[in-house]
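Example S7 (structure tokens).
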């Protein structure tokens, strides 16, 4: 180990940190205190924290070169890591001393922390789960590399103008990013397009050469992922696309200046921007290029690491476990075969054995429109060699099945990677399933539905492949960091073991429930969090909410299956009850919505408009007199969620049963003391089982009832006709009551609900309304509410992402902890 003695980069007491910040301001930012901007101070503080990670970071690089370990490679097109500074200071145990140092320098620590731009390199659940997983991998000291794409522009920033979502380009790196280190020497050339030529090589073996149309260079950018107080640091290795030749002198000399940089411009488009679609496959060429680009760089990097540590490529499955985060990186199956067969000259069958042994595939959705399938013409024009390989994989697989189950053409056409019906497609879920040793869903219910529906044929063929790993979230960011008051109270009662060992420690909280003082403090903390959120909402939306009201919160991507419009129908019904009898006593509520809609998702954007339209009318209605307020909190992301989860009383998890694979927001709310109103969907089922049905507001049809109603000729009109409050609410929308009489604006929502209602909003309406009355009734008894809130937290142990990662080690990766 190189003996680095530069102690000013290691010291941790406030004085040393103060000096280190000034040194970084001066030597790295090149600014004096007099000239320094807010961003300069943030950068200086960030570098000071990063310096103290460096030793452990370099240790982990050394560790990656040891023979003994098995490295987890987590391949994901999205990593929604959130801001680094506050999380790094927490995990390095520097929070206290660092804020003392900042205060000594006349800085406001919170202002410096919130200066950081959020790396929005993800859309929602899948991307954030990947971030929680890399935090847990580091905290459990499991050597791992998160492989992904360094998008120049992440998920758009959301502004609400006249009630509508406006997408603003996310220029997250415009002021630089102190948390990444560029590795210019660590680059790979990635081929695209062109054709293949087969030949017999010098040993007489059949070989194929891929002559591409063009090549792109992938350069690694490394970001440290520190574990919680264990000196372990893992890597997030994100690839940026560049031109192989970034400047064409010949073109320049001929005066074709734009031509001189054409290649550069084109090449950089690959990692330019994140596709903002969540659960909707756009099937775009650039999207496939992005997927192949980062997968090819990542697999070659894994092979480089394997060979550099003196292990053979044939031993790759013992050196690495590669996890496919949904089908987005599933081209990896074909790419691994290409690398092993074409470049490392391993026989097909040996290569296939290695490939199946190394990959695990996680499915995150059952929605048909979210399952990726690439049109054959597009696929073959971009990846001609991979198409040949997929044909061969498919042929060998189907031949094997045909030999075991002769004459079952139906089965063959369903399990084939190639969808032959009509325009031909490559089914990426089939490729991922066939090429992986283990397939898992992300909640017990979802994994069951996966085996009964989308992958039923594969389950029937290889039941041993299918396991469940229920999602989890990191208690570091989602409790310790984002709810410091609650964290302090927990630690004061059960010690701080819960931060690193949430699963085993948090249950101890149950013993505090009878302590009146404790319950009082519990309530005060929630109240203070609610006050802070009220201030922020006033600042951001100019809407005043009452911290004594019940905070009813639904924050997640906007999607019909998540049923934000069902929540809205409850609000309209409640509004009508007040209008009908303004003297009516009700439990006052603040309904807080948040979430982005995919820019091309018309109905989701219209739902945002309707939420804001209802808000406008209800919030200003004198009869309501502030007893219910509706807020659309703009730009819901990791950074802004800091104030939301800890302030919620009620967590809305109201998706149509069978549609939400798991949900992770449901876990974050419950871990921060909110009670859940929800359906038997995704991980709600397991949360209910853990916290107890008396501590969970359950309503609605379950997954079996949903599919039988849908297959039994569901008549939404029937529910509309037979429920006055429902009819009234829908008629008001239809009449333009929330759109200044304009009956057209929200017609698409009304038509969808009355004609098809694909997510059974009308069918679940009355059960939901009744359940909401139970919520209000309980909230009136604050002590009962507080007791259930405490029990909800005490029984959430299982939903730490550390438990999920332990399950992956046991059930998928074969890593002994
Ligand atoms: C091809 C476009 C596309 C993009 C993203 C299709 C599908 C996705 C993701 C799979 C969507 C997603 O984020 N799914 C969510 O994953 C979470 C983590 O497992 C689950 O908790 C959510 O229930 C699931 O909706």
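Recovered sequence:
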């Amino acid at each position: 180990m190189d003996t680095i003695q530069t102690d000013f980069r290691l010291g941790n007491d406030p004085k040393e940190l103060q000096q280190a910040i000034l040194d970084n301001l001066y030597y790295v930012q090149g600014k004096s205190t007099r000239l320094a901007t807010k961003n300069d101070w943030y950068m200086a503080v960030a570098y000071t924290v990063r310096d103290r990670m460096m030793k452990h970071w370099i240790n982990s690089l050394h560790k990656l070169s040891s023979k003994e370990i098995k490295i987890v490679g987590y391949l994901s097109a999205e990593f929604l890591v959130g801001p680094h500074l506050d999380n790094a200071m927490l995990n390095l145990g520097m929070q206290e001393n660092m804020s003392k140092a900042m205060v000594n320098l006349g800085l406001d620590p919170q202002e410096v922390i919130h200066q950081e731009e959020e790396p929005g390199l993800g859309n929602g659940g899948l991307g954030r789960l990947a971030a929680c997983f890399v935090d847990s991998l580091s905290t459990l000291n499991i050597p791992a590399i998160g492989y992904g794409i360094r998008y120049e522009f992440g998920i758009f920033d959301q502004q609400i103008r006249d009630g509508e979502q406006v997408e603003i380009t996310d220029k997250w790196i415009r002021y630089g990013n102190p948390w990444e280190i560029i590795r210019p020497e660590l680059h790979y050339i990635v081929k695209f397009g062109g054709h293949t030529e087969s030949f017999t090589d010098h040993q007489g073996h059949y070989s194929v050469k891929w002559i591409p149309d063009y090549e792109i260079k992938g350069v690694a950018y490394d970001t440290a992922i520190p574990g919680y107080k264990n000196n372990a640091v893992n890597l997030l290795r994100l690839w940026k696309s560049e031109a192989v030749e970034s400047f064409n002198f010949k073109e320049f000399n001929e005066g074709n200046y734009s031509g001189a940089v054409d290649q550069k411009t084109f090449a950089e488009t690959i990692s330019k921007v994140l596709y903002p679609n969540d659960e909707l496959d756009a099937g775009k060429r650039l999207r496939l290029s992005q997927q192949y680009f980062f997968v090819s760089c990542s697999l070659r990097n894994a092979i480089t690491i394997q060979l550099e540590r003196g292990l053979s490529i044939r031993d790759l499955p013992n050196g690495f476990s590669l996890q496919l985060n949904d089908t987005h990186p599933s081209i990896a199956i074909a790419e691994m075969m290409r690398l092993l067969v074409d470049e490392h000259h391993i026989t097909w069958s040996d290569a296939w054995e290695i490939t199946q042994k190394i990959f695990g595939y996680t499915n995150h959705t059952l929605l048909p429109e979210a399952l990726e399938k690439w049109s054959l013409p597009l696929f073959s024009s971009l990846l001609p060699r991979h198409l040949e390989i997929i044909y061969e994989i498919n042929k060998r697989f189907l031949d094997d099945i045909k030999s075991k189950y002769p004459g079952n053409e139906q089965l063959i056409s369903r399990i084939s990677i190639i969808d032959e019906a009509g325009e031909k497609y490559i089914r990426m879920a089939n490729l991922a399933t066939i090429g992986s040793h283990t397939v898992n869903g992300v909640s017990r219910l979802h994994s069951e539905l996966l085996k009964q529906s989308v992958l039923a044929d594969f389950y029937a063929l290889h039941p041993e492949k299918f396991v469940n790993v229920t999602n989890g979230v990191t208690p570091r960011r989602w409790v310790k960091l984002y709810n410091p008051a609650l964290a302090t109270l927990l630690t004061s009662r059960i010690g701080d073991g819960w931060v690193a060992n949430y699963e085993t420690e948090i249950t101890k909280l149950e013993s505090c429930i009878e302590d009146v003082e404790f319950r009082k403090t519990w309530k005060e903390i929630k109240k203070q969090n609610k006050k802070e959120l009220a201030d922020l909402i006033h600042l951001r939306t100019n809407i005043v909410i009452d911290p004594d009201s019940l905070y009813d919160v639904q924050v997640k991507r906007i999607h019909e299956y998540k049923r934000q419009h069902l929540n809205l129908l409850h609000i309209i019904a409640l509004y009508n009850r007040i209008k009908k009898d303004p003297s009516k006593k009700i439990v006052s509520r603040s309904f807080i919505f948040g979430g982005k809609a995919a820019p091309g998702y018309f109905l989701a954007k219209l739902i945002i408009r309707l939420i804001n339209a209802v808000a406008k009318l209800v919030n200003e209605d004198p009869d309501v007199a502030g007893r219910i307020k509706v807020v659309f909190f703009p730009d819901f992301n990791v950074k802004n969620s800091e104030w939301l989860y800890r302030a919620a009383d009620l967590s809305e998890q109201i998706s149509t049963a069978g549609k939400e694979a798991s949900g992770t927001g449901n876990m974050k709310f419950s871990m921060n003391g909110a009670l859940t109103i929800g359906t038997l969907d995704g991980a709600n089922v397991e949360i209910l089982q853990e916290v107890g049905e008396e501590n969970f507001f359950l309503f609605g049809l379950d997954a079996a009832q949903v599919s039988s109603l849908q297959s039994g000729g569901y008549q939404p009109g029937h529910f509309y006709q037979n429920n006055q409050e429902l009819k009234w609410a829908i008629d008001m929308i239809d009449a333009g009551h929330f759109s200044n009489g304009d009956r057209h604006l929200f017609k698409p929502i009304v038509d969808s609900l009355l004609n098809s209602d694909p997510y059974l909003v009308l069918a679940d309406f009355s059960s939901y309304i009744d359940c909401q009355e139970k919520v209000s009734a309980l909230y009136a008894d604050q002590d009962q509410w507080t007791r259930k809130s405490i029990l909800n937290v005490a029984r959430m142990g299982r939903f730490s992402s550390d438990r999920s990662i332990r399950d992956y080690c046991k059930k998928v990766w074969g890593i002994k902890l």
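Notes on this example. The pocket of 26W is lined by residues 123-126, 129, 277-281, 326, 364-365, 370, 372, 442, 471, 660-664, 682 (CB under 6 Å).
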